Amino acid sequence: MGKLRFLLLFLAICCFIVGGLDQRKLYWKTSAWRYRIPEANEPSDAACKAKRIGLFATGLVLIAIALG
């Protein structure tokens, strides 16, 4: 059970780190290359906020599972 707890806490920390990054820069570094016109497929501000909130919520759930 100790290894699973460590894995869940590690994934939670990763979620918090990625959630703390600038989501627009993350798009340009990881996903923009797939599109012919990347500016047309750039996520909106609401989508960036939703992704950030989702990552933080996922991190909190992972911590709750690991410590529960």
Question: Overview of this structure, please?
Answer:
The protein has 68 residues and is mainly alpha-helical. It has one domain. Helices cover 74% and strands 0% of the residues. The protein has three helices and no strands. It has helices spanning 2-20, 23-30, 45-67. The longest helix is centred in the C-terminal third of the chain and has 23 residues, at 45-67. The relative contact order is 0.20. The mean pLDDT is 95.
Short synopsis of the structure:
The chain is mainly α and 68 residues long. The chain contains three helices and no strands. It has one domain.
Counting DSSP H or I runs of 4 or more residues, the number of helices is: 3
Structural class: mainly alpha
Percent strand equals under 5%
- Order of helices and strands, N to C? HHH
**How many strand units?**
0
- Mean pLDDT rating: 95
Morphology: elongated
Q: Fraction of residues in helices?
A: over 70%
Describe how the helices and strands are arranged.
Blueprint: H1 2-20, H2 23-30, H3 45-67
Helix pairs in contact: 1-3
Key phrases:
single chain; 68 residues; mainly alpha
